[in-house]
Amino acid sequence: MYRKPVKVLLVDDDDDNCKFIYDLLSAIKIGKFEFGTVNSYAEALEQILQNQHDVYLLDYHLGQTLNAKKGHTKGKKPLSPPGGERGRGLELLREALAKGCSGPIILLTALADLDVDIEAMNAGAADYLIKSQLDSHVLERSIRYAIERKRAEKALRLSQERYALALAGGQVGVWDWNINSNEIYISPNLKAMLGYGEAELENGWDEWKQLLHPEDCAPVMAALETHLAGFIGQYEVEYRRLHKDGTWRWFLSRGTALRDTDGKAYRMAGSETDITERKQLEAYLRQALAQEKEVNELKSRFVTMVSHEFRTPLATILSSADLMEFYVDSWQADKLIEHINRLQNAAEYMTQMLNDVLVIGKADAGKLEFKPIALDLSQFCRNLVSSIEEDIQNKKRPNNNANPRPKRINFEEPPPQNGSNQTNCIMDEKLLRQILTNLLSNALKYSATTVRLELAYEDNMAVFRIQDSGIGISPEDQLHIFEPFHRGNNVENRPGTGLGLAIVKKCVELHNGYIAVESQLGQGTTFTVKLPLEP
């Protein structure tokens, strides 16, 4: 029954009571008992708080004597204390438990008193025994029950602590819902996971439901109703709940309902696991996979573009080189110059294509530099237009006579206002040249003759509008027009890499600017670029 001797401490200031209890313990046939006594309040409290005994027997009528005998054992009797105030046993019981007594305390009294019995139990006594009704069997059973109950309570407390630690460590909270009364118990750590203290969040279904994300409320209620109706064995759903700081936290909720004999649910309990980090990781992985897919698609587009766009200029270079080698002695000077121009144009086209690839690569890697300097926008635009038109005139091709009307750029700007220098700005000259050159080159490529470049000013912003009367861009293509390597479905056999507009957008973004497109098929396109006059 007992694995080792049971250490008993009797707190009593009456010699006869001490001998009586000692004799009862000695008569117990099962187990061994090590018996000691103290007979003062102060000594008893000191001994009890050392927690060196398995059980404490405490006389309800203990007096306030200072005369005590430590460690009274068989063959020795405690000194009889002088008379004094009695009835402090219950006070000692309360103080000992409040200050950390870990063993059970059994209260002994001479007379049966229901009020004292109730008071003792409420104070935390393990049992309440009347000396006149006491024998060795009753005492042994009371001690055994008290010790076992204390062990069970300790085991339960440790189990609850482990459970609480596991819940806290795993970011898990529990809830218990009384379906009939609509009351719900929410564990403190679940409230803490949402940033609330124990008393800050009421244990009510309506209050708990209000924290659900509006988009998740319907699916959560649908899953709950399906489980309560008995269609699924376990309730399980992922949803968002509002944290006290205003952010949304993701939770995995699981629960099971208890049902009456008719199968109707009357109670439901479950757990909530914070899965916010898991959701964030899933989102990151989805983004990474999407980026990987995009990179693979860009690689595929790049290979297709290179194989297609390089083929024509390379063929031109090879054919012209072969013809020049074969006819070098018989051709006239103008014929030779024509083929030299072809070689130059093809090489320039390939060089520009490679430059575009390098620029978009730098931009994607965040290495495209932004170096603003002071510029006169009006003069800059005039010089750029002149340079592009001169370049057009210098490109000589065999089919030059097929289009007798030369392509032109009409530059429009607001008139000066009272001598102000509104055309002065601070921008990156190289990036601005990339923006306007690409847009104007595209406009010229898809227009028959004239292209319009307008410069205006709105709210400390420079506004550039590039308008053409070309083939236009479909609404579907407008959604993807700034993506690398994307080309419209109606460009036919016109050369191009699909990188120009992607470069334009990157350059505009480095200026903290804005670009928009308006277009209709067959009626031309207008690009609007807005850039701050100063960074």
Which short descriptors sum up this protein?
535 residues, CheY-like_superfamily, five-stranded antiparallel beta sheet, five-stranded parallel beta sheet, 17 strands, alpha/beta, 3 domains, 21% strand, Rossmann fold, Beta-Lactamase, rod-shaped, Heat Shock Protein 90
Description:
It is a single chain. The protein has 3 domains: 6-164, 3-Layer(aba) Sandwich (Rossmann fold); 170-274, Beta-Lactamase (2-Layer Sandwich); 369-535, Histidine kinase-like ATPase, C-terminal domain (Heat Shock Protein 90). Helix content is 44%, strand content 21%. The protein contains 15 helices and 17 strands. The protein has helices at 15-27, 41-49, 89-98, 114-123, 136-169, 188-193, 205-209, 214-228, 276-309, 311-327, 333-364, 377-394, 429-446, 475-478, 500-510; strands spanning 6-11, 33-38, 55-59, 105-109, 127-130, 172-178, 183-186, 235-242, 248-259, 265-274, 373-376, 408-412, 424-427, 450-458, 461-468, 514-519, 525-532. The protein has a 5-stranded parallel beta sheet, with helices on both faces. Strands 7-6-10-9-8 form a 5-stranded antiparallel beta sheet, sandwiched between helices.
Report a brief summary of the structure.
The protein is an alpha/beta fold and 535 residues long.
Largest beta sheet: strand ordering: 2-1-3-4-5
CATH architecture heading of the largest domain: 2-Layer Sandwich
Summed up, the helix count is 15
Counting DSSP E segments of at least 2 residues, the number of strands comes to: 17
CATH topology value of the largest domain: Heat Shock Protein 90
Average predicted local confidence, pLDDT: 82
Global geometry = rod-shaped
Task: Give a quick account of the main beta sheet: strands, pairing sense, barrel closure.
Answer: 5 strands, parallel
Overall number of domains: 3
